[in-house]
């Protein structure tokens, strides 16, 4: 299959101020793509433009994915461009905590950012794609988007929801040239777990060991771009064990569940989880003293 040349393509990346999004913006800009980089933190977007190889081909577009007015303004600006080839939905926040520990407000906040925000932006972009006769969404999901991960219930639910939404969108538009690529990163060494919300809504504050041992954001972006150039509908990026884990889960979800349940790192966390549950019940007077 002939590889797609992303040079001169217009690519809009959300969540571009750090991590995977930032690395995608820099690498695509270096390849000659016209990049639109969006995020809430304007100072980070300014830094991104300064360090980009071709700053004249990188447009910074501040946007809050959870704010409808912010989305409307950003989309209005993109309509001024000649075309929009690819939108990479990368905005999102993580979550850490057992189901029983998570306050409902945390679940709602995760869904508002990871799912509803992405859906709102997609709905605003679709008229552009339909008018120009083609379009492409790169949806950054996660391993947690195709399998249940302990301590990630809200995050996993938000990513599962994206798969359902975009598969339906693809089915509704089979007569037009609408491409959708699901991007499934494994453990990536970024700040996503440090910024992830605990059960009480406060940031976790540190990068989890599993992510510290993962591949870099730059390596992840490189793998994603290679998958996009092949027009893959499913792009999996991570270490060999993680890729094997995903394959096993796809063939046999029961075996995948068994491996997750008995993973050494999972066993190490069991003690901490039991302590947390005990403290939770005591705090909420569920367990009689």
UniProtKB/TrEMBL annotation:
<dbReference type="InterPro" id="IPR002347">
    <property type="entry name" value="SDR_fam"/>
</dbReference>
<dbReference type="InterPro" id="IPR020904">
    <property type="entry name" value="Sc_DH/Rdtase_CS"/>
</dbReference>
<dbReference type="GO" id="GO:0016491">
    <property type="term" value="F:oxidoreductase activity"/>
</dbReference>
<dbReference type="GO" id="GO:0016020">
    <property type="term" value="C:membrane"/>
</dbReference>
<comment type="similarity">
    <text>Belongs to the short-chain dehydrogenases/reductases (SDR) family.</text>
</comment>
<dbReference type="InterPro" id="IPR036291">
    <property type="entry name" value="NAD(P)-bd_dom_sf"/>
</dbReference>
<dbReference type="Pfam" id="PF00106">
    <property type="entry name" value="adh_short"/>
</dbReference>
<keyword id="KW-0560">Oxidoreductase</keyword>
<protein>
    <submittedName>
        <fullName>Short-subunit dehydrogenase</fullName>
    </submittedName>
</protein>
């Amino acid at each position: 299959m002939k590889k797609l040349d992303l040079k001169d393509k217009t690519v809009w990346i959300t969540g571009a101020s750090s991590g995977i999004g930032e690395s995608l913006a820099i690498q695509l800009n270096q390849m000659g793509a016209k990049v639109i980089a969006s995020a809430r933190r304007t100072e980070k977007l300014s830094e991104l433009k300064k360090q980009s190889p071709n700053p004249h081909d990188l447009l910074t577009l501040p946007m809050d994915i959870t704010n409808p007015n912010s989305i409307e303004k950003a989309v209005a600006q993109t309509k001024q461009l000649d075309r929009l080839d690819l939108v990479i939905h990368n905005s999102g926040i993580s979550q850490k905590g057992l189901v029983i520990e998570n306050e409902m407000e945390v679940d709602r906040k995760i869904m508002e950012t990871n799912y509803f925000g992405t859906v709102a932006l997609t709905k605003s972009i679709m008229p552009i794609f339909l008018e120009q006769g083609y379009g492409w969404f790169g949806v950054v999901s996660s391993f947690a988007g195709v399998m249940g991960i302990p301590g990630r219930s809200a995050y996993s639910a938000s990513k599962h929801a994206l798969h359902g939404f975009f598969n339906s969108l693809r089915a509704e538009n089979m007569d037009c040239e609408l491409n959708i690529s699901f991007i499934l990163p494994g453990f990536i060494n970024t700040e996503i777990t440090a910024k992830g919300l605990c059960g009480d809504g406060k940031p976790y504050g540190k990068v989890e060991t599993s992510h510290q041992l993962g591949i870099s954001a730059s390596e992840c972006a490189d793998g994603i771009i290679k998958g996009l150039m092949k027009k893959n509908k499913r792009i999996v990026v991570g270490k060999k064990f993680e890729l094997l884990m995903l394959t096993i889960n796809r063939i046999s979800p029961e075996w995948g569940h068994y491996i997750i349940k008995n993973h050494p790192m999972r066993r190490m966390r069991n003690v901490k989880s039991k302590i947390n549950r005990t403290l939770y019940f005591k705090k909420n007077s569920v367990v009689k003293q």
